[in-house]
Design a protein that fits this description.
Shape: elongated
Low-confidence stretches: 231-243
Number of domains: 2
Oligomer: single chain
CATH architecture of the largest domain: 3-Layer(aba) Sandwich
Distance between the termini: 8 Å
Bound molecules: magnesium ion
Radius of gyration: 20 Å
Mean pLDDT: 92
Helix content: 40-55%
Number of helices: 11
Strand order of the largest sheet: 4-3-2-5-6-7
Structural class: alpha/beta
Number of strands: 8
CATH superfamily of the largest domain: HAD superfamily/HAD-like
Length: 249
């Protein structure tokens, strides 16, 4: 039975739903523009602004995982094209980002972080641009890893390896928890980690991928699945590390 000593968590759609968040954030951005830069707001309704960000992402593949940079470039372009002051880009982004970080956690998220954080070092591992400090949960993670800061994103091995190294554990001793079969589960498995797929909407597992080690509908189920795992307690008096937890299949 494989052992785990630390757990990494995806954020968006694992700890909170992302779609309503982005819709609120884009609405807040549009409201800022309507108030301060009405020409830009008129020329760039929300769907068109979204398309512009996607276009900017295609034009700047090096920014593929930096949604903040994509947004700022998009805003500067939209503002300039409408004859508005590009200095509005930063406060307009701030209007969006404020809402982007007003997350509504899934009901099981914080209790699971509490329960698992008491037993394992936790890492956050995201391709998104959530600000855990603003959200108020930065302190729950020993290590916080973001693709936009690392310049490499899930599913690439390097970002999983960085996370394990930052926690001081081997990849094989870690469990990665996430909702995306390709970015989270296949990526982590290829990196040599144990995996837990959070499948909240009852999706079918993609037949082309090897299955995850665990599949759960809620994080409560993950906590329950790990409940019998032995504690990876601190080194004993002899200096020998205690037994790590076993991951049930
Ligand atoms: Mg996700």
């Amino acid at each position: 039975m494989p052992d785990i000593r630390a757990i990494s968590f995806d954020l968006d759609d694992t700890l909170w739903p992302i779609r309503p968040l982005i819709e609120r954030a884009e609405t807040a951005l549009h409201a800022y523009l309507a108030r301060h830069c009405p020409r830009t707001a008129a020329a760039w309704p929300i769907p068109r602004m979204r398309e512009l960000r996607e276009q900017v992402a295609r034009e700047h593949p090096q920014l593929a995982h930096d949604f903040t940079a994509q947004r700022l470039i998009s805003l500067e372009r939209a503002l300039a094209g409408s004859g508005d002051d590009v200095a509005h880009a930063q406060p307009a982004f701030e209007a969006l980002y404020l809402e982007r970080n007003r997350v509504a956690f899934y009901a099981d998220a914080l209790p699971a972080l509490d329960a698992l954080g008491a037993r394992f070092p936790l890492a956050s591992l995201t391709n998104g641009n959530a600000d855990l400090g603003r959200i108020g949960i930065a302190g729950r993670f020993t290590v916080r890893v973001a693709a936009r800061e690392r310049g490499v994103a899930k599913p690439e091995r390097a970002i999983f390896a960085h996370t394990a190294a930052a926690l001081g554990v081997e990849l094989a001793d870690m469990l990665h928890v996430g909702d995306d079969p390709w970015l989270d589960i296949d990526g982590a498995a290829r990196a040599g980690m144990r995996t837990c797929w959070v499948n909240r909407d009852g999706s079918a597992w993609p037949t082309e991928l090897p299955p995850p080690d665990l599949a759960v509908a809620t994080l409560d189920a993950l906590v329950a699945a790990l409940a019998d795992a032995r504690l990876p307690a601190a080194a004993g008096p002899s200096g020998e590390p205690a037994e790590p937890a076993n991951l049930p299949r």
